[in-house]
Fold this sequence. Notes:
Chains A, B: This is ArsR family transcriptional regulator. By secondary structure, chain A is an alpha+beta fold.
Amino acid sequence: MNRSSDVKGLIDIDGCSVRVVDAPRVATVRERMPATQDLDDTADVFGLLSDPGRLRLLVSLLDGELCVCDLAAVTGQSESAVSHALRLLRAHRIVAVRRSGRMAYYRLEDPHVRMLLDLALAHTEHSELIHPERGEQS
Amino acid sequence: MNRSSDVKGLIDIDGCSVRVVDAPRVATVRERMPATQDLDDTADVFGLLSDPGRLRLLVSLLDGELCVCDLAAVTGQSESAVSHALRLLRAHRIVAVRRSGRMAYYRLEDPHVRMLLDLALAHTEHSELIHPERGEQS
DNA sequence: TGCTCATATGAATAGGTCTTCAGACGTCAA
DNA sequence: TTGACGTCTGAAGACCTATTCATATGAGCA
């Protein structure tokens, strides 16, 4: 095949030649890179946790189920916004519903997400995060 | 003060009356809710991890520093896109730079983010994530 | 039945984000 | 100095996302 890894500072990636500095290192890191699908799924999960409204909903559900209107009250959002958010989270199996009459009780269903939340909150509550655009080092 | 928690199903939140079902539970969950600032910061961090390009960059940096062009090669992005992404991550102190001549070597700086990445990847590589819009339960 | 209630949904709008392109900047080598 | 190089940046466009409003659905109650 048309490999050009022998060309100094140039390697083939996905069929097109790219400039690199540390070719062997690049090869190693590329091999260890998780599958595209896995990375995209992981990015999706992080994306679901990246909205303050949804994050609040999930944190509220950490120790038990709540109905939509209580979730709206706890998180300070409109019931419509909460419903839309829950629909998204439900579609990704992160929360699950229990229906009782006209009430809908949601619970946190994904243990993986629960761990991410626990880990993230444990850190942010103890150490202050640094805010953007505050100057950088030398 | 104008508390109306005695009104059946109605409580005061931030000065305006809201309908709730389980008032004491709502109060408890609200008390346990982390500070607004902490939640917003946490959502920001998740947001930074929610882009496949940035996620790839950070994963690439998990075991050591790499220069911009190698990061572009490893992650399959343009050098400009990589530079923009690194700028964002740098502003949030998630990565740090070491400059040597005209080269810029980036490394993963935030141990908190490293843990989140490790946890997230450990799970996605072993268990398949469910994709959206596949129908739900009863 | 009709009415109210709790939730769900669709459409539309406003705001944000990623990528690309063109060019700037500082460094190195000749 | 000049030119090539590696990286950085700003502006522009296309795309995606969150919220709101209005309305629908479907359960309980009279």
